[in-house]
């Protein structure tokens, strides 16, 4: 897997991703402590609203940025997004009211919605070989999972020495380091694989903003990918929103066991990210991703049974505690089996000229799935109980898996020509 790091451009971009993720992880811990300082016992509602703002920014901003991105060199766009994120992190320690937190979080996530799709669209051009790109996707998944495990430990160590406000300075450092690393390499020009100039979007801004989404939804395999994203969101939302409820209320365990449960989820995802490149060398994406979606539904159904067992398992949760850890690890593994090959599927389904718009559309639409799953996991769990929330999300994951199976036929379909892209080169056929 590490062989792709021999490519200098990719090595610098991957390192930029890692240091930015580390900074984001520190900010996540610091933001929770800041919310508690501002709102006290109502800190959960502040964080919940901030999370919703994050999803709204992701869903709404990415398509607009994709429509404008052709006017800005990609390296300049990535650096500007990093500098904007650093500026927001610089201001967070000085806020004095909740509305200021919401405003800065929106700006921060808008910058992330600019950076992430642009970054994702560059990697297949830096690593054009399918085998190398697959390994890059696994490394990216591994970076996300490692961040979820390492950042809380790093933050805990720093908090033993300094106040939480200093964690924001770590975030600033991460984003600035990412910008420097992006500047240090020359990114490929916007050209297709045959060397033709990239087509530029035509039409009004609104039409161009929706062009990537229309292209994404026009391809059955990509509609299947969106359904698979919904299955991942159903399982992931239950973990992210309700882990603390399961550990503290359902099982009666200590607060220190909450990160252990979250670590099981990240550990399952990491294990798959390490093993998946060799699997994908021999198995088709469809044969990996569709069974994983059904596995999410099955794991959630099993979780409903474990939840319904109530407190009869004895002190500390009895057998339900290791069962919860195993289920969380399984959900992490299933999510990684779906998310990691997603970039391969997208790259194979659209022309190279349309990759930035397609990645932006996937980024926006997939986070729309999380925007649906988060309230289901939280509000339904609080009002109807965890068993009802688990069954509802399990049914959602099952419906998504069935839909993906119906949409994604085993025989690959030919690549479509993007409707809103006008080729500048005479070699139109080469782009297909």
List the helices and strands and how they pair.
Layout: H1 8-39, H2 43-68, H3 74-91, H4 98-126, H5 130-159, H6 165-183, E1 200-201, H7 205-218, H8 220-250, H9 257-282, H10 285-308, H11 320-339, H12 342-349, H13 355-383, H14 386-407, E2 421-422
Antiparallel strand pairs: 1-2
Helix pairs in contact: 1-2, 1-4, 1-5, 1-6, 2-4, 2-7, 2-13, 3-4, 3-6, 4-13, 5-9, 7-13, 8-9, 8-10, 8-11, 8-13, 8-14, 9-11, 10-11, 10-14, 13-14
Question: Any key phrases for this structure?
Answer:
single chain, 432 residues, 76% helix, two-stranded antiparallel sheet, mainly alpha, Growth Hormone, Chain: A, 2 strands, disordered C terminus, 1% strand
Q: What would a concise description of this structure say?
A:
This protein is an all-alpha fold and 432 residues long. The protein has helices spanning 8-39, 43-68, 74-91, 98-126, 130-159, 165-183, 205-218, 220-250, 257-282, 285-308, 320-339, 342-349, 355-383, 386-407, and strands at residues 200-201, 421-422.
